[in-house]
């Protein structure tokens, strides 16, 4: 660390302590050349995760936006806030795990994660979210998705009866 007085490069740390809930560290330093004491702050440099939308636009990853979508699709359904937050946590983990170093993730990865989480919790909330996310154009697309869900349910029931 360069001394602000004599511009010598060497300094020693006299004291360190956390500030702002551990998000940064305050250090008291002393120049090895002139003995001048000064304070520095270290913070973690974080690069935001960007979401690449279908049209190519990019926006910063936003947990609250995902939660709002889940809340809307779960209205008047027996889905607790705890379950909704758990889905958002899982989706956030998926998004950061999908980051290959470019600090970007596709909106498709996020949408699929939300649908998977909702499907495990409440099928109606899942269908509501899917109808907006997949932009169902007409009733036949909606019906086919519902039929697919019902077929999956039948297969699961048959597997349980075999056990």
TrEMBL record:
Q: Which UniProt keywords apply?
A: ATP-binding, DNA-binding, Metal-binding, Nucleotide-binding, Repressor, Transcription, Transcription regulation, Zinc, Zinc-finger
Where the record annotates domain ATP-cone, the positions are 49-141
| Gene Ontology molecular functions | ATP binding; DNA binding; zinc ion binding
Cofactor(s) needed: Zn(2+)
Q: Which InterPro entries match?
A: ATP-cone_dom, NrdR-like_N, RNR_NrdR-like
According to its UniProt entry, one GO biological process term is: negative regulation of DNA-templated transcription
Residue intervals of every unnamed zinc finger in the record? 3-34
Q: Which Pfam families does this UniProt record tie to the protein?
A: ATP-cone (PF03477), Zn_ribbon_NrdR (PF22811)
What remark does the entry make about the cofactor?
Binds 1 zinc ion.
The entry assigns this protein to a family as follows:
Belongs to the NrdR family.
This chain's function reads: Negatively regulates transcription of bacterial ribonucleotide reductase nrd genes and operons by binding to NrdR-boxes.
The name under which this protein is listed is Transcriptional repressor NrdR
Task: Specify the species.
Answer: Fructilactobacillus fructivorans
Q: Which gene encodes it?
A: nrdR
């Amino acid at each position: 660390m360069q001394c602000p007085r004599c511009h010598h490069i060497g300094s020693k740390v006299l004291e360190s302590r956390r500030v702002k809930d551990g998000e940064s560290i305050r250090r008291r330093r002393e120049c090895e050349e002139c003995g001048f004491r000064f304070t520095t702050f270290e913070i973690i440099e974080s690069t935001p995760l960007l979401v690449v939308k279908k049209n190519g636009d990019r926006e910063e990853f936003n947990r609250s936006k995902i939660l709002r979508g889940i809340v809307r699709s779960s209205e008047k359904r027996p889905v607790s806030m705890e379950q909704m937050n758990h889905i958002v946590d899982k989706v956030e983990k998926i998004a950061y795990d999908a980051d290959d170093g470019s600090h970007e993730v596709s909106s498709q990865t996020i949408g699929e994660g939300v649908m998977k989480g909702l499907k495990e919790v409440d099928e109606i909330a899942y269908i509501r979210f899917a109808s907006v996310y997949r932009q169902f154009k007409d009733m036949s697309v909606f019906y086919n998705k519902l039929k697919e869900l019902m077929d999956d349910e039948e297969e699961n029931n048959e597997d349980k009866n075999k056990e």
